[in-house]
Amino acid sequence: MNHLERALDNQNQWWKTILVFLGVVGSLLLVSTLIDILGTFFGLSFPDIVIIGVSSLVFFLVTILFIRELHKRNFKEVINGTQSVRWKRIFFGMIVWGGIMTLTIVADYYNNPDNFIVSFDFKTLVPLILLAVIIFPIQAGFEEFLFRGYLAQIFGAWTKNRWAAIIFPTILFGLMHSANPEVLRYGFWPMMTQYMCIGFIFGVVSVLDDGIELAMGAHIINNILGLSLLSFEDSVIETSDALLYAKSMEIPSVLSTIIGMTFIGAIFI
Fold it and tell me: In which region does residue 93 sit, left (phi positive, over 0), alpha (psi from -120 to 50) or beta (all else)?
């Protein structure tokens, strides 16, 4: 085992973790300020997905720099505790989770086709897919690096407990998404349950596989398909250019979500 064990050193003081997050917040403020300046003085505007991609890249680079300087760990050691990234596992995670997600969406469509608007326009769909393929490896990769990588190592080092390395980052992962528009639209607890179930599944897989590559791949394809294959009202990045657009969304109850995600998680794990 290398991933969590790599952090069992004397470099995990609480104030270092606070500084890492202050670095992320500071970079957020910097990017927001630059976007405001470009909009106010130069009249430039950018699509939300581009802003997300640029912001995530800045967050990623700042986080890597802070962890290297404060915790004496490079980005590869945060990913799996070694000096090499297992790229094949990233693609394998994309294939497995993408297959599960695609089958679920297709089943929903055939169960209630009248609820979906099909938009198969190459002029809009292909650019959307290309943009998603460029942006989401950065955005989703950063989230996994931060939660299943860095924070899992931190909580694992503090508690010497693998469950803590799964549970605490999962809770923080869910809370980070509490500002998403679908939370306001569809309810806090139903959406938090979905986010945390996904975070828990990715956390378990990362511990069992001794690295976060599978979780990174799954998260990346989850967001790519969530933009290009299926969109709905008040999703994080709502677009009518997706292949399928749901006219209405019925969010399962907390219990139904837990049961369903347990089944999906068992297949993925």
Answer: alpha
Q: Is the pTM of this model over 0.90?
A: yes
8 Å CB contact between 25 and 171? no
pLDDT in tens, the chain (269 residues): 899 999 999 999 999 999 999 999 999 899 989 988 988 888 888 888 888 889 999 999 999 999 999 999 999 999 999 999 999 999 999 999 999 999 999 999 999 999 999 988 888 889 999 999 999 999 999 999 999 999 999 999 999 999 999 999 999 999 999 988 889 888 999 999 999 999 999 999 999 999 999 999 999 999 999 999 998 887 887 788 888 999 888 888 999 999 999 999 999 99
Domain ranges of the chain: 5-268
